[in-house]
Design a protein that fits this description.
Number of strands: 5
CATH architecture: 3-Layer(aba) Sandwich
CATH topology: Trna Endonuclease, Chain: A, domain 1
Strand content: 35-45%
CATH class: Alpha Beta
Helix content: 25-40%
Structural class: alpha+beta
Largest sheet: 5 strands, mixed
Number of domains: 1
Number of helices: 2
Oligomer: single chain
Radius of gyration: 14 Å
Distance between the termini: 39 Å
Length: about 120
């Protein structure tokens, strides 16, 4: 039996599962865990001609609310700002941008129970 998973490992696991899920559906993962002066981007992908910024939420329970509730107005503003900074830094602007979320529900041992991909969360 695996030991319970800590927060950092849970986040990495969720991002890995989300990246695999999106890749299997035709998305090209351009970058992972990109830190900018304005915040972090979990996944930067391309789907057709659109750049998709993906916020990954991995949760073991909803004691602190649902994963999507964690993407409130403050988080949304930071995501937008970080995305624009990163895209400008990479020379990718102007481009079509979409913000998605992938919610990965894990059991206490870090194994996936379910996954939900929500397009256009912002």
């Amino acid at each position: 039996m695996n030991p319970p998973v800590d927060r950092t490992a849970r986040g990495r696991t969720g991002e890995q599962i989300a990246a695999s899920f999106l890749s299997e559906r035709g998305y090209r993962v351009l970058a992972r865990n990109q830190r900018t002066p304005l915040g972090e981007l979990d996944l930067v992908c391309r789907e057709s001609a659109q750049v998709v910024i993906v916020e990954v939420k991995a949760r073991c329970n909803e004691a602190y609310g649902t994963a999507l509730e964690a993407i409130g107005p403050r988080k949304a503003g930071r995501l937008r700002a970080a995305a624009l900074w990163w895209l400008a830094d990479q020379g990718l602007l102007p481009c079509a941008i979409r913000f998605d979320a992938v919610v990965v529900d894990l059991d206490g041992y870090g194994l996936p129970r379910s996954l939900h991909h929500v397009r256009d969360v912002l």
